[in-house]
Amino acid sequence: MDISHIINASGIENPQAALYIDYSDGLCLTYYGNYFSTQDPNEQAYHLYTIVKGNSAIIDKDGFGLIKYHEFDVYLFYDPKLNKLLAVYK
User: What is the pTM of this model?
Assistant: First the structure.
């Protein structure tokens, strides 16, 4: 899995923040108590972002997902033009 860089990762205090992640294979976003990481098929985890509470979802190149929170939703989808995973907090 290629997670080469993060273009923008704003604080969770900004509900309109967007997080872009490069990836090539299926991507698992796992949310823990105070952060989330990505996890590839080899079980390698990458710490990326601080967050309060959450869940997890499997996203692939042709799919999209929705992660529900108490106060807001996180919409996840893949942009084939940018070859990015886009997570939008609303």
Answer: 0.33
What is the Cβ-side half-sphere exposure of residue 76, based on CA atoms within 13 angstroms? Answer: 21
Q: Is the distance from CB of 27 to CB of 14 less than 8 angstroms?
A: no
Reference 84, options 67, 43, 76; nearest CA is: 76
Report in angstroms the alpha-carbon separations of 19 from 42, 63, 75: 23, 17, 11
Question: Euclidean distance between the first and final Cα of the chain, in Å?
Answer: 27
pLDDT in tens, 62-73: 545 554 444 445
Please give the pLDDT value at position 73.
53
Contact between 86 and 20 under an 8 Å Cβ cutoff? The reply is yes
Q: Report domain extents, the chain.
A: 18-85
Number of C-beta neighbours around residue 29 at 10 A: 24
The answer to whether residues 41 and 49 touch, using CB atoms and an 8 Å cutoff, is no
